[in-house]
């Protein structure tokens, strides 16, 4: 596959494995999560899955963790550093996080998140930013740091365990840096979240799974350096300053290939991050914390026509449908697109009419298999974000909401099976 600037290289073949809920699903792409006998029971009639309501292995919450209080803003824009970023006050258009009232049914949260966040030739960043506006949704855009670093300055990047300037993805063109900066500003002002996808996108040997805590901190520090000094590194003087401070706004991320979460969790604490979306996969259950950080994993969703659960990411469908080939049989595109839509909606319906656990969907700005995974997301946004009681939010907004709930309420929510519709007065007290 031809490598387009700023695009991911061909992914490695998947590793199929069985795991219990408490084990890490150790695949870079994680194609299929098969049913675990005695734990995940598949209903052959309707494809629903029931997870055990036990919470063994989950870390207990120590009460709502209040985010750092924002200092009073004097109403003036504060340009930071070399003029790449600025502080324009607390972000607007955010979800008002309120504790549930006794007997109140939780909102059905849906989080659409994007790895990479480059505005390339396909204009997918701007497309989904506009679609979010149309459907009163917020999304999480995970920015890759080197997407604001010109190729001519690649020697500024010192990736852990790899040669200086190397990366597993292409550096962007100057024009793509310009268009990405424009979209970052607009996305933030629309109320969306900007998170991190780190820098070089290394997977497998010498990838994030092999990195120490210190190496993860180096990767994070370099991410901040690239995004806070894009003006110096590019020399652009005609591009407006970003209207936010990365140090304040980045509160979580997703590791490339979902690798390295144990040491990453240890590294991110010193940055005050509040969540991580790097967990390889879990059941559709209410989130818990790992090492004091909210864990927002990809989720196992019913796979149409199969007796297994597939993970809620476009990579997963790609490998199941075309064995990882990004240009599979065009005659099957329509069928594959409908399979993808049906799986997402089956996962949505299971919790919407059941436990109301948040639904997490992770995707990439890619045109794999004729862009069917992008077209599928378009349909899912339109069919879910418009339903009564649904809030399509960012990970950051979800973390805000979870932080203000009673710990005992969250514990009871976690005890629900995905499709279990309880008497809410017995859960929210």
Low-confidence stretches: 1-65
Shape: globular
Tally of distinct domains: 1
Biggest pleated sheet: 5 strands, parallel
Q: How much beta, percentage-wise?
A: 5-15%
Order of helices and strands: EEEEEEHEHEHHHHEEEEEHHEHEHH
Structural class category: alpha/beta
- CATH class annotation: Alpha Beta
Based on the structure given, which CATH architecture is correct? Alpha-Beta Barrel
Helical content band: 25-40%
CATH topology: TIM Barrel
**What is the CA-CA span between the terminal residues?**
55 Å
Gyration radius over CA: 21 Å
User: How confident is the prediction overall: mean pLDDT?
Assistant: 87
In DSSP terms, counting alpha (H) and pi (I) runs of 4 or more, how many helices?
A: 11
Question: CATH homologous superfamily, by name?
Answer: Glycoside hydrolase/deacetylase
Architecture overview:
The protein has 429 residues and is of the alpha/beta class. The chain has a single domain, classed as TIM Barrel (Alpha-Beta Barrel). The protein contains 11 helices and 15 strands. The chain has helices at 124-134, 174-189, 213-228, 230-234, 246-249, 261-268, 314-322, 333-352, 368-384, 395-403, 407-414; strands spanning 32-34, 41-42, 49-50, 78-80, 85-87, 108-116, 140-143, 193-196, 275-276, 289-290, 293-295, 300-302, 308-311, 359-364, 390-392. Strands 6, 7, 8, 14 and 15 form a 5-stranded parallel beta sheet that branches. Strands 1-13-12 form a 3-stranded antiparallel beta sheet. A hairpin with a 2-residue loop joins strand 10 (289-290) and strand 11 (293-295). Helix 3 (213-228) packs across helix 6 (261-268) and helix 8 (333-352) runs parallel beside helix 9 (368-384). It is globular, with a radius of gyration of 21 Å. The relative contact order is 0.19. Residues 63-79 have a biased composition (Basic and acidic residues).
């Amino acid at each position: 596959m031809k490598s387009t600037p700023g695009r991911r290289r061909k992914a490695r073949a998947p590793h199929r494995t069985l795991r219990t809920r408490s084990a890490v699903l150790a695949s870079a792409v994680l194609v299929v999560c098969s049913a675990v006998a005695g734990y995940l029971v598949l209903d052959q009639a309707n494809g629903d899955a029931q997870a055990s309501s036990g919470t063994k292995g989950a870390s207990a919450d120590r009460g709502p963790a209040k985010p750092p209080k924002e200092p009073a803003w004097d109403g003036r824009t504060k340009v930071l550093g070399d003029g790449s970023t600025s502080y324009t006050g607390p972000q607007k258009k955010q979800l008002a996080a309120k504790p549930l009232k006794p007997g109140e049914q939780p909102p059905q949260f849906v989080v659409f998140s994007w790895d990479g966040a480059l505005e390339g030739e396909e204009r997918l960043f701007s497309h989904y930013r506009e679609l979010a506006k149309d459907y009163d949704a917020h999304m999480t855009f995970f920015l890759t740091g080197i997407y604001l670093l010109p190729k001519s300055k690649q020697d500024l990047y010192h990736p852990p365990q790899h040669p200086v300037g190397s990366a597993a993805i292409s550096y962007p063109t100057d024009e793509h840096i310009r268009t990405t900066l424009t979209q970052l500003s607009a996305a933030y002002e629309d109320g969306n979240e900007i998170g991190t996808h780190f820098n070089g996108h290394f997977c497998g040997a010498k990838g994030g799974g092999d990195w120490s805590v210190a190496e993860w901190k180096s990767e994070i520090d370099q991410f901040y350096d690239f995004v806070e000094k894009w003006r110096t590194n590019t020399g652009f003087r005609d591009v407006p300053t970003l209207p936010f401070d990365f140090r304040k706004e980045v509160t979580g991320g997703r590791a490339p290939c979902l690798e390295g979460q144990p040491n990453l969790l240890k590294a991110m604490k010193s940055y005050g991050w509040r969540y991580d979306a790097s967990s390889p996969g879990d059941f559709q259950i209410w989130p818990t914390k790992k090492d004091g950080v909210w864990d927002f994993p990809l989720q196992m969703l019913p796979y149409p026509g199969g007796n297994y659960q597939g993970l809620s990411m476009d990579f997963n469908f790609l490998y199941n449908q075309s064995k990882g080939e990004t240009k599979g049989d065009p005659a099957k595109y329509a069928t594959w697109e409908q399979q993808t839509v049906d799986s997402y909606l089956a996962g949505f319906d299971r919790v919407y009419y059941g436990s109301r656990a948040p639904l997490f969907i992770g995707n990439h700005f890619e045109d794999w298999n004729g862009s069917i995974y992008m077209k599928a997301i378009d349909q899912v946004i339109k069919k879910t974000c418009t339903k009564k009681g649904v809030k399509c939010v960012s990970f950051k907004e979800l973390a805000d909401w979870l932080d203000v709930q009673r710990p005992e309420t969250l514990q009871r929510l976690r005890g629900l099976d995905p499709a279990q519709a309880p008497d809410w007065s017995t859960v929210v007290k």
